[in-house]
Amino acid sequence: MKRISPVLLSVLALAGAAAGFLLDHAMTTAGRATFTPSILLSIFLVLLALAVLALAWPIRRSTRSAERPPVNPFRALRIAMLARASSLVGAVITGFGIGLIAYLLSRPITPPIGSIIATTVAALVLTIAAVIAESFCLLPGNGPHDPDGLTGPRLEDDDDDQSRTAADPGH
């Protein structure tokens, strides 16, 4: 498994910023109040960041220490996917908050933007925590000498140049 790409996170943040800016513009043009997220959203995002880190920490301890019992690989994969999804959501919400702030700061009268800033910062915290949690779920042997992230033994049938065994006469 490869780490999540910073380029993908940046593209999602830019898309979220455009969506936030356009949503506020459309709501203002329609004569409605601008969108303001609840402060509970920022609390939820920080709690999610803590939960993702707390779930990934035992896997990090297990992969970095020889005395620990081995961790279930399916559990590690599930937590890595949770971390990846959390980083994607965090990037989109961070961009969305930046778009809302950019639109509101372009207006002649600036409304209170405290909850928008809190949500944006909490989403950024979620993104960073999720990227860290995803790195906790990777094996420590991955590095530049192993670009595919494959550290396990190769299967016998992985190479095309190897001759087939007598049990496989057909191909």
Descriptive terms for the model:
0% strand, transmembrane, DUF3180, DUF3180 domain-containing protein, membrane, transmembrane helix, 171 residues
Summarize this, please?
The protein is mainly α.
Order of helices and strands: HHHH
- What is the SS-derived class? mainly alpha
Q: Cα distance, first to last residue? A: 31 Å
Give unreliable regions as ranges.
142-166
What is the β-strand count? 0
Portion in beta strands: under 5%
Shape: elongated
For this entry, what is the oligomeric state of its chains? Answer: single chain
Helix content: 55-70%
Biggest β-sheet strands, sense, barrel: none
Count of discrete structural domains: 1
The average pLDDT value, as a whole number, equals 83
The number of helical runs is 4
Structural Rg: 22 Å
Write the layout of secondary structure elements.
Layout: H1 6-29, H2 39-64, H3 73-105, H4 114-136
Helix pairs in contact: 1-3, 2-3, 2-4, 3-4
Structure overview:
The chain has about 170 residues and is mainly alpha-helical. It has one domain (about 5-135). The chain has helices at about 5-30, 40-65, 75-105, 115-135. It is elongated, with a radius of gyration of 22 Å. The two termini are about 30 Å apart. It comes from Microbacterium azadirachtae. Keywords: Membrane, Transmembrane, Transmembrane helix. This is DUF3180 domain-containing protein.
